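Lecture notes, part 5. Sequence design as translation. It can be helpful to think of inverse folding as translation between two languages: the language of shapes and the language of residues. The source text, in structure tokens, appears below.
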């Protein structure tokens, strides 16, 4: 099967594509490489802006995976018209999901939240786990909000169920996130617990961290539909433990390579 991935060199694409290749799929990528090229060598690249793609460019592909966009960008809240050019977010995100279903019935819309990954992301400015570990090393007091509840998910874990969509025809909207829920404060506390770190960590309210962007108090995603096709997700605690293990292995590999 030949698959075209738009934005394949991005935060989630760079985790998904190796899993597709491992399963024997032929993968091409449409990319401008704003944040560098870390793709496997066997991936062919179409150097184009997605708005310049033609029908001819799509011929021969059995599936198209759309991952292009800018992440963690409050522009969506401030300028919906400009945001529409780059992303599907806020109000335009819901509209975009509706248009996908209306215009192409053989489609999947995958929702997720709270992604973090081993390599971090230059486009996202790192990730929450690395920020907490850096602050712990600085020995300063750490304050984290405890009234925003969600489910944190590593991008490597996100890639596993997403591969399954390639081989099913149960089209529709799916939520891909870890099992369970926690506040940002609880997540930070678990990070330090698993790392065996003693830090000055205290919970605070969202009101104590003024932001021009409104964040939902509860953004946990139900996964009933995902379970209906036989996919079970690990808990957020399991995912965090796996992340920290992978992070340690990656750090050791980098150190060994520099000797």
């Amino acid at each position: 099967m030949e698959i075209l991935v738009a934005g394949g060199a991005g935060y989630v694409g760079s985790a998904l594509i190796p899993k597709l290749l491992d399963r024997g799929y032929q993968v091409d990528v449409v990319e401008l490489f704003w944040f560098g090229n870390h793709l496997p060598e066997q991936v062919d690249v179409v150097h184009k802006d997605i708005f310049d793609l033609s029908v001819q460019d799509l011929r021969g592909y059995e599936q198209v995976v759309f991952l292009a966009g800018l992440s963690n960008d409050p522009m969506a809240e401030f300028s919906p018209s400009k945001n529409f050019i780059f992303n599907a977010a806020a109000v335009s995100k819901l509209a975009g999901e509706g248009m996908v279903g209306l215009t192409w019935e053989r489609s999947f819309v995958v929702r997720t939240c709270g992604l973090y990954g081993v390599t971090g992301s230059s486009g996202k400015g790192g990730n929450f786990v690395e920020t907490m570990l850096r602050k712990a090393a600085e020995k300063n007091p750490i304050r984290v909000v405890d009234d925003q509840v969600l489910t944190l998910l590593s991008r490597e874990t996100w890639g596993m169920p997403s591969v399954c969509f390639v081989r099913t025809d149960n089209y529709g909207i799916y939520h891909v996130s870890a099992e369970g829920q926690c506040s940002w404060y609880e997540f930070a506390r678990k990070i330090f617990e698993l790392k065996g770190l003693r830090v000055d960590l205290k919970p605070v309210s969202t009101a104590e961290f003024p932001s021009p962007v409104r964040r939902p108090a509860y953004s946990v995603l139900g996964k009933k539909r995902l379970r209906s096709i036989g996919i079970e997700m690990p808990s957020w605690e399991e995912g965090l433990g796996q992340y920290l293990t992978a992070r340690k292995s990656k750090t050791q590999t980098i150190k060994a390579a520099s000797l």
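The translated text above is only one of many valid answers, since several sequences can fold into similar shapes. Confidence is low (pLDDT under 50) at residues 252-259.
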